[in-house]
């Protein structure tokens, strides 16, 4: 029987496997390309200045005001989407290690999370440029974004565990989640503003049911001087507690079956 908190503590105590392997995965993936590790930055440039500029023009908003909105939303969303999508195949793609006796599954979850955070750090220079040209940047909100992002990462742990176990049991989950996130990106206010969706409208209700919206807003709104709805605080509190309870239970109950499932 595996205990989640015990395995997480052991993984942090011995980070050699997951920290090094996550970095090697990125290096091996890009070392033969002409642009090399610049590919880590390029998606942020395309989304923030390309897609962001396009939708800023449609909305009639100056890019220097809209770029920061897109930049922060994209950076947070990418962390969440990378962890959720890749965690569904984390155990299956590491089956050789698991079959060889490496049964501390949190190492493979941290490997996915570390890779997502590498992508996040790589996008920060592009995000910083967008923030630098934003006219109403709130520095208090910038400092508040650190504990907000810490809370997001704290939630990312249980998300990775739950989706990792479900993905190990149901191999088709990765395809399903990949397609769902194409819709989730449009449902989350990354390239549009949340204040255009009243709470009593259908689209407004769908947006507020979406947990990705609340996670993005928790980091972005204070930085841009925007108000955070009280619903977001309640939502994140319940989500964090319920999510960790579900992850602890699922890991204790089903982690031992992963070698059989994969």
TrEMBL record:
InterPro entries in the cross-refs: ABC2_TM
Pfam families assigned: ABC2_membrane
Keywords: Cell membrane, Membrane, Polysaccharide transport, Sugar transport, Transmembrane, Transmembrane helix, Transport
Molecular function as annotated in GO: ABC-type transporter activity
Chief localization: membrane
Keyword DNA damage set for record: no
Annotated Gene Ontology cellular component terms: plasma membrane
Presence of keyword Transport: yes
Domain spans labelled ABC-2 type transporter transmembrane: 23-223
BP GO annotations: lipopolysaccharide transport; polysaccharide transport
Subcellular location: Cell membrane
Membrane topology: Multi-pass membrane protein
Transmembrane segments: 37-60, 66-91, 112-134, 146-166, 173-192, 232-251
Family per record: Belongs to the ABC-2 integral membrane protein family.
Protein's name in the database: ABC-2 type transport system permease protein/lipopolysaccharide transport system permease protein
């Amino acid at each position: 029987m595996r205990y989640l908190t015990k395995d997480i503590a052991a993984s942090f105590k011995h980070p050699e496997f997951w920290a090094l392997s996550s970095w090697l995965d990125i290096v091996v993936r890009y070392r033969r390309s002409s642009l090399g590790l610049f590919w880590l930055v390029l998606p942020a440039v395309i989304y923030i200045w390309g897609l962001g500029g396009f939708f800023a023009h449609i909305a009639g908003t100056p890019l220097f005001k809209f770029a920061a909105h897109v930049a922060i939303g994209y950076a947070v969303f990418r962390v969440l989407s990378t962890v959720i999508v890749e965690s569904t195949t984390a155990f299956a793609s590491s089956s050789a290690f698991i079959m060889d006796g490496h049964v501390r599954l949190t190492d493979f979850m941290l490997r996915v999370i570390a890779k997502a955070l590498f992508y996040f750090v790589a996008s920060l220079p592009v995000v910083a440029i967008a923030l630098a040209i934003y006219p109403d940047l709130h520095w208090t909100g910038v400092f508040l974004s650190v504990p907000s992002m810490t809370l997001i990462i704290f939630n990312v742990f249980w998300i990775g565990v739950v989706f990792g176990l479900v993905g190990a049991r149901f191999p088709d989950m990765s395809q399903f989640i990949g397609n769902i996130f194409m819709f989730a990106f449009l449902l989350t206010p990354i390239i549009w503003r949340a204040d255009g969706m009243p709470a009593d409208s259908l689209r407004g209700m769908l947006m507020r049911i979406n947990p990705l919206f609340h996670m993005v807003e928790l980091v972005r709104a204070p930085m841009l001087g925007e108000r955070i709805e009280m619903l977001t605080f309640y939502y994140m509190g319940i989500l964090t507690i319920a999510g960790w309870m579900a992850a602890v239970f699922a890991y204790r109950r089903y982690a031992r079956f992963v070698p059989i499932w994969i």
